[in-house]
Amino acid sequence: MPMGHTATAEAGSGGLTATEHRLANGLRVVLSEDHLTPVAAVCLWYDVGSRHEVKGRTGLAHLFEHLMFQGSKQVHGNGHFELVQGAGGSLNGTTSFERTNYFETMPTHQLELALWLEADRMGSLLAALDDESMENQRDVVKNERRQRYDNVPYGTAFEKLTALAYPEGHPYHHTPIGSMADLDAATLEDARNFFRTYYAPNNAVLSVVGDIDPAQTLAWVEKYFGSIPAHDGKPEPRSGDLPEVIGEQLREVVEEEVPARALMAAYRLPHDGTRECDAADLALTVLGGGESSRLHNRLVRRDRTAVAAGFGLLRLAGAPSLGWLDVKTSGGVEVPQIEAAVDEELARFAEEGPTPEEMERAQAQLEREWLDRLGTVAGRADELCRFAVLFGDPQLALTAVDRVLDITADEVKAVAAAKLRPDNRAVLVYEPLATEQSDHADGDDEEGADQ
Amino acid sequence: MTDAAVSLTSMDFHPQPQPGAARPWAFPAPDRGKLDNGLTVLTSHRPGQQVVAVELFLPAPLDAEPAGLDGVATIMARALSEGTDQHSAEEFAAELERCGATLDAHADHPGVRVSLEVPVSRLPKALGLLAEALIAPAFLETEIERLVRNRLDEIPHETANPGRRAAKQLSKELFPAESRMSRPRQGTEETVAAIDAAAVRAFFDAYVRPATATAVVVGDLTGVDLDKVLAETLGAWTGEPAEPLPMPPITADDTGRVVIVDRPGAVQTQLLIGRIGPDRHDRVWAAQVLGTYCLGGTLTSRLDRVLREEKGYTYGVRAFGQVLRSDAEGNGAAMLAISGSVDTPNTGPALEDLWKVLRTLAAEGLTDAERETAVQNLVGVAPLKYETAASVAGTLADQVEQHLPDDFQAQLYARLAETGTVEATAAVVSAFPVDRLVTVLVGDAAQIAEPVRALGIGEVTVVTG
Predict the structure, then answer these.
(1) Measured between alpha carbons, how far is B312 from B31 in angstroms, rounded to an integer?
(2) Both A80 and A184 in a single domain?
(3) Do residues B325 and B332 touch, judged by C-beta distance below 8 A?
(4) How far is A105 from chain B (nearest CA, A)?
(5) Would A381 disulfide with which of A43, A69, A294, B10, CB 3.0-4.6 Å?
(6) Fold of the domain spanning B31-236
(7) How many Å apart are CA B142 and CA B200, to the nearest integer?
């Protein structure tokens, strides 16, 4: 049996604790008890994402994630979905640059079923994987691509910006959805090889969080996962390292059928897991994280040149993170006017840094986001896996908010001065195609604004 | 194959485990009270939920908007967070964010909902700001002008979105032109452009008052003297009492037909197929929920089993029922719909299969196994679904908005468990009759119109935009 570590709440962890264990086959297990609600979350992170894909096979990690729901030795067809939902659980899987995760949230008394299901596919997926599933899910994924990216305005912006910000041949140059051509080219043998290479207990972290009995849970984990053989042979992903700054302004102008001009940009930022990344998070929050941010106040409230303006942070551990600027212009406003205002605001911020009030607001916003994230068993399970897989220590999840609150205004100013510069960004400009008809169509039938 | 062969031979397989004993869980019963100013307050203590959710319902319905001013409720809702007699718009936003709070407001057919989320340590401060917005909103001409322009800028973005465009068209098709429900909730370019500060102020004065409003507060309230906090914040809001507004009857023309919103070159067709039907007051609601789940609640439901998992035509198609508006007398209605996107070349075949699924369902009914799985899911997921304060507060506020008792959701779970296969079949077949469905397709008419005409599911018309 694996050995448990002690569970002592660290200061600032909000009373949450987690214990770590390792099976003989290398599967890392993280448990966290919380008996407030009779639910338990199971989360399994495989240390494989789109950065592991090779040329000509983009999208394979995500297509493979779909195949994981098509049955295994003891689970037939859509049995994984049927059994979890029939047990009153919810489930899904997602694929990103750096990992693939699978998760089930179950009523407590159905926890063992989720563990059995995850173990069955980790150990025996290839017993069920066939051409029929492959062809079907290839079509489903191509329709996912059409629905989420190709058939919506600005839908491929992220893909284009990523391709600009990370050079050709870089593991993060392409996004997890992959290209249509590569999705068409993927073979059943590619999928089998992918499983054999990456889906091993020693390449995964399992977390179980919620209304659990840790000893019983660990015994189930050992029973179902313990006999799955470890195996090595996973190639190291290509290095994602890049120079600290891009060193020039990269730029692409897209003429497409979009409803308004847009200015988007990706700034190269420090890797996730560093103080500088947390400082960048605060900088982007002050500049573009909500309705009291500098860019919103300047572009939407005062200049009235934009319908929406904001910054987001894509945290990445294996490559520089991305600060993503997104401004949609108002009426007939031209992009250079917006760009000049953005540059002015960023330069001023780099010069003066955040005010004490801005620091307080940004830290309060990020603190609430963390409380939200850790407020559900599923969110907590995912964060424990994230810190275990990317940084080797799940306990870091429980103190992440303290690290954000520990950042000083000087650090925020420093990262802004070093990174939020025109020569450290890739810019994407959207110009609408001229249309013959001026269409005075009216509004929508649903809540909120777009995006 | 070596590695896989090793795995298969050396892994120990165990039979599927059986569930343990379920721990009881019940949808929370809120405490209901009234402040001196007439504001109804529902509270629910949820241990561990450090982010408190406050939902405020203001019965300022869209049908009360003056003629030609569709969208004034939306602008008013947004203007609530754009400054007060004590804070400018920028200061107000800054003060809220200093609390780590988010404040959203939106207008729908029954009225305006304001949603506040804030860490419990800053609840009193955030409730103070919310109260300030209700007691003394600034509604400055300059801010209203800005909100109007911003709203006008949003409209083309929504029109470009296939899902939004489909929803707009379906409402226009279903409801008579004189019904507010036929027109976009947030107004059109013409009506929004006509809104000014005086119109916003007049709408606010007419319909926003504590005596008709309800506040729902949910979260870990340990150590919070909520009565005192409420008395000092929302309790200071004053206003005259008012009679509840009568709800106009809801009618819809669900003659089977197809409307294609032409999008030349679109790689997918957005489909939205709908009509109206019973709301939560109707005895059939539980059976309708159950049957609709079996039809299109998840990827193992009937629609996706064929359209996604067998044919690969789509990333997913869902069937759902969404309440439009209700009154206490049971005259309300829900939108019953099927929605999803299918690739352009397979639009005809996908619709043909979709209709086949509906016909088979009507002819053969649901199976006991389907019904059993659906009940297990719908009832079983309740503790997961209601883990956060925001989800509990949202449902409690929906109940208030729809004139339902506070224990409606709790009772619904009991009713779902009692609902049999025959009832669920009858409900879903009557919710989605094959000849009484209005189909909106946002896609490339040149490619999809002919194959769709050939299906014989109703007259096909093509519109632009």
Answers:
(1) 48
(2) yes
(3) yes
(4) 7
(5) A43
(6) Cytochrome Bc1 Complex; Chain A, domain 1 (3.30.830)
(7) 13
H or E element at residue A389: helix A377-391
Find how far residue B315's CA is from the centre of its chain. Answer: 21
A-proximal residues of B, 255-314, CB under 8 Å: 266-268, 270, 298-300, 305, 308-314
Interface of B with A in 66-85 (CB under 8 A): 71, 81
CB A64 within 8 A of CB A428: no
Question: pLDDT per position in chain B (465 positions), as tens?
Answer: 334 444 455 799 999 999 999 999 999 999 999 999 999 999 999 999 999 999 999 999 999 999 999 999 999 999 999 999 999 999 999 999 999 999 999 999 999 999 999 999 999 999 999 999 999 999 999 999 999 999 999 999 999 999 999 999 999 999 999 999 999 999 999 999 999 999 999 999 999 999 999 999 999 999 999 999 999 999 999 999 998 899 999 999 999 999 999 999 999 999 999 999 999 999 999 999 999 999 999 999 999 999 999 999 999 999 999 999 999 999 999 999 999 999 999 999 999 999 999 999 999 999 999 999 999 999 999 999 999 999 999 999 999 999 999 999 999 999 999 999 999 999 999 999 999 999 999 999 999 999 999 999 999 999 998
CATH number of the domain residue A313 falls in: 3.30.830.10
Same domain for A193 and A258, yes or no, is no
Residues 180-219 of B with CB under 8 A from A: 183-190, 192
Copy the structure tokens of residue A183. 């999705």
Q: Residues B339, B344, B346, B352: is their CA dihedral positive or negative?
A: positive
CB–CB contacts below 8 A, A to B: 310
Q: Which residue of B has its CA nearest to A227?
A: B11
- Closest by Cβ to B300, choosing from A82, A142, A257: A82
- Cα–Cα dist A65/A72, whole Å: 13
Q: What are the residue boundaries of the structural domains of chain B, listed by start? A: 31-236, 257-463
Asked if A45 and B393 count as a contact pair (C-beta separation under 8 A), the reply is no
DSSP A43-90: EEEES--GGG--TT-TTHHHHHHHHTTS--SSS-TTHHHHHHHHTT-E
Measured CA to CA, the distance from residue B302 to residue B296 in angstroms comes to 6
B380 Cα distance to chain centroid: 21
* Contact of B180 with B71, CB cutoff 8 Å: no
Classify each residue of B91-127 as buried b or exposed e, where b means 16 or more C-beta atoms within 10 Å of its C-beta. ebbbbbbbbbbbbebbbbbbbbbbbbbbbbebbbbbb
| Count of domains observed in chain A | 2
| Domain that residue A421 falls in | 250-432
Interchain CB distance below 8 Å, B153 and A450: no
Q: What is the C-alpha separation between B367 and B361, in angstroms, rounded?
A: 10
B367's CB contacts (< 8 A; 6+ apart) are: B421
Report the number of secondary-structure helices (H) and strands (E) in chain B: 18, 12
* The token pair that represents B222 in the structure block: 């340990």
Q: Which two tokens stand for residue B4?
A: 């896989």
| B430 DSSP 8-state letter | H
Does residue A61 sit in the same domain as residue A95?
Answer: yes
Q: Do A89 and B12 touch (CB under 8 A)?
A: no
A366 and A261 inside one domain: yes
List the structure tokens of B439.
Answer: 């189909």
> Which CATH code, of 1.10.10.10, 3.30.750.24, 3.30.830.10, 3.40.710.10, is assigned to B257-463?
3.30.830.10
Mutate to test the interface with B, among A137, A376, A442 (most CBs of B within 10 A): A442
Backbone angles phi, psi at B45, to 5 degrees: -85, 120
Q: Do the domains spanning B31-236 and B257-463 agree at the CATH topology level?
A: yes
